[in-house]
Amino acid sequence: MERHDMGTRRIPDTTIRRLPAYLRALTLAGHDRVTSEVLGQLAGYTPEQVRKDLAYFGAFGTRGVGYDALSLTKEIRHILQLDLGVRAVVIGAGRLGTALVRHTDESSRDVAIAAVVDINPAVIGRQLDHLTVEPLDRLEELVRERDIGMGIIAVPPQGAQAVLDRLVNVGVRAILSFAPKALVVTDPTVFVQQIDLTLEMQALSYFVGTSQRSGSS
Q1: Which residues form the CoA-binding domain (predicted)?
Q2: Cα 14 from Cα 12, distance rounded (Å)
Q3: Which run of H or of E encompasses 20?
Q4: To pair with 106 at 20 to 30 A between CA atoms, which of 100, 129, 186, 192?
């Protein structure tokens, strides 16, 4: 899948996904100027990949000198729209949803959890850090009231598609789903990122087996 900037250039999603890594690398570098070699090393990519990704958005560096770290940080934050103050709603206040709210509050200045909703009467009304868990029935109302642009789905698989549909219908265009189920969205303006932790661990188990087989040969 590809995205378009304000002009006509097509920007691969993989490039967009690497930008936060460059943003973190700029913080870790701790210098006024930083080269693509340093950025690549800290972010885990080659210098060529760094230069190619950044070139989609303009000429930010000087050959042989590198990038002004503060300026590049501001540019990447602007590209990712982090300078606008992104607000998200977490759907599901179980263990995973609770952990996501607390982790985001502690680690992120860029994406703020503005609401948490659940269908379980036992958790509705519970205080979760600075938020009160609201009933799922208020989802659309909360999205509009609090100018929420991102949805985070942390519900059982049987309810995930219905939640996604409601988010799309109310205008949310960026959705992160932790539900262990493939979700369907037909609107090309909506981007859904699905993370199935069980599938990730099962895939990683291959490399455990490879290591064991190598050691026994």
Answers
A1: 85-182
A2: 5
A3: helix 13-29
A4: 192
- Which residues contribute to the annotated binding site? 92-97
Using CA atoms, how far apart are residues 153 and 178, in angstroms rounded to an integer?
6
Residue closest to 57 by CA, chosen among 24, 2, 17, 11: 11
Instruction: Write down the H helix ranges in 30-150.
Output: 36-43, 47-55, 69-79, 95-107, 139-145
Q: Helices H, strands E: what count in the chain?
A: 8, 12
- Look at the block and give the residue holding tokens 């208020």: 138
Residue 191 corresponds to which tokens in the numbers above? 């981007």
Question: Looking at residues 151-169, what average pLDDT do you find?
Answer: 97
Contacts of 198 (CB under 8 A, 6+ apart): 180
The rounded distance, in Å, linking the Cα atoms of 74 and 188 is 28
Verdict on whether the full-model pTM lies above 0.85: no
Residues making up the binding site for NAD(+): 92-97
Instruction: Report the distance separating Cα 135 and Cα 139, nearest Å.
Output: 8
CA distance 33 to 61: 10
Strand duo 66-68 + 33-34: pairing: antiparallel
Tell the residue number behind the tokens 């990122």, with chain if given.
193
* pLDDT per position as a tens digit, 24-69: 999 888 889 999 999 999 999 999 999 999 999 987 777 777 899 9
Question: Token digits for 159?
Answer: 């309810």
Domains of the chain: 2-79 (1.10.10.10), 85-199 (3.40.50.720)
